[in-house]
Structures are given as C-alpha cells and as structure tokens.
Amino acid sequence: AQRVTQPEKLLSVFKGAPVELKCNYSYSGSPELFWYVQYSRQRLQLLLRHISRESIKGFTADLNKGETSFHLKKPFAQEEDSAMYYCALISGGSEKLVFGKGTKLTVNP
Amino acid sequence: GAGVSQSPRYKVAKRGQDVALRCDPISGHVSLFWYQQALGQGPEFLTYFQNEAQLDKSGLPSDRFFAERPEGSVSTLKIQRTQQEDSAVYLCASSLYGFEQYFGPGTRLTVT
Are residues B99 and A32, on separate chains, in Cβ contact within 8 Å? Predict the structure, then answer.
C-alpha cells in the first residue's frame, strides 16, 4: 500500500537557520512526489514537485529512491515560511494524491 | 481567474441529517477530486471524476457518502444520516491534465 510518513508533527527554527522537513514514502513503483503548503487562513497549494526540479521560494527537494525519501530543504528560513507542509505522492496509473500527516513549521524571529 | 470555490464554507448538522457540499472547479478543468481532512491529519482521498465519469470512489468511507458531477463541471458531495465521525474539512480540487491539483478553501462540517 502507498504511504507517506512525515515524522515531525512540529518543527521550530530561528530565522536564517537551515530547515529540513522530512518525508519518507512506501511504494513499490516510481511515484511522483510533491510538497504542498498551507499558510495560515489560506488554501492548500502546490509548493514543488520532483519532476520539475525547480526551486520555489528557496526550497528544494531531492528524491532519493534508495532511501525512499523526499526531504524538503531551505538553507535560510524566513518568518514567512511558517506554515503547514504536506508531502504527497501520486502512484502510476492514478491521479489521486496520498498525503502525509503534515509538519507545522514555525520560524521564529 | 477564479480558483476552485466551495460552498458552504461552514456547515453544522445534527446527527442523522443529510448534507450536500458543493464544489465549483476551475473552468475547463477535466479532473475533480474530493478529499476529507480530519483534525490534525493530512487530506485523505475520497473520490475522483474525469468529466462526468466517476473513475475512482475507493476512498468513500461508507455508502452514506455519494458524489456526483452530472455535467462534468460542478460537483456535489452528499452525506446521508451524518455521524459525528464525519466531522472534518472536505476539500475539493481540480486539475486540467497531469498532476497539479488546485484546491478549494474547503467546507468545515461539524456534526453535533
């Protein structure tokens, strides 16, 4: 069965510090991996997906098939990065997203 | 342009009542998805349409849940005889092709 695990429910860092939000997945094939973000009082929105290999708002994520991980990283966190972050996957042949439980990131001044 | 809209934004229902939640996708989007998000959890898939065809309803938790999209645009998620465990935020998302799904603001359902 497909599963996405985000081991940290809460993560707190200081402004300017590096941040890494962990995501591990279980799926036997080759999934598409995503990070979604939800800022306070806003709707869920796509942050980045591994196939595009883009850096959005300074965030990057590398798919490590050996470790089945897709950790989200940013070298210097900003206060406006405070939000709820969800890792998700789509398995081949389907369009439905399978989400992790989310990590709440707080960037302190 | 306008994003995905959902109505009502909040709904309080007494246990046993039927509710209907509406989703207006982005115009021209072929695919439409419903997710349920319980407090402190990530969204969980309920069902998926491509145009008017319901291609996957494997996530619907019971036969009290029913979704339709009769003309391939607006969709309604209906919950019959609501139970307390149905309390959650119900999210709708739409996509054109491929994998980027655009989410609505959600409907928060509280069953008392």
Answer: yes
